[in-house]
Amino acid sequence: MRSGAKIGIVGGVFAVVIGGVGYGAYNILDGLGDSGVGGGGDGKTTSTEVKTGPVTKAETADTSKKFLAAWAKGDAEVAAQLTNNKGEAEPALVGYSDTVHVTRAVITPGPAIGSKVPYTVKATVSFEGKTKAWSYASELTVVRGLTTGHPLVDWLPSVIHPDLGKGESLETGESKTASIEAVDRNGNVLSKEKYPSLGGILDELRKKYGSEAGGTTGIETWINSADADGADKTLLTLAKGKPGRVQTTLDPGIQAAAEKAVKKYDKSSVVAVEPSSGAIRAIANNRRDNFDAARLATVAPGSTMKIVTAAMIIQNGLGSANEPVACEPQVTWMGVPFHNLENFSMPDATLKRAFARSCNTAFIKPVGPLDKAGKADTALGNEASQYFGIGRNWQTGIQTWDGEVPASQGAETAASYIGQGKIRMNPLNMASITATAVHGQFLQPYIVPKDLDNRTFATASPLPGGVSAQLREMLNYTATKPEGTATAAMAGVGGFKGGKTGSAEIDGHATSDSWFTGFSNNLAAAALVQSGGHGGTAAGPVVAEVLRAGP
Question: In 3D, which of 277, 292, 208, 298 has the Cα closest to residue 246?
Answer without folding.
Answer: 208
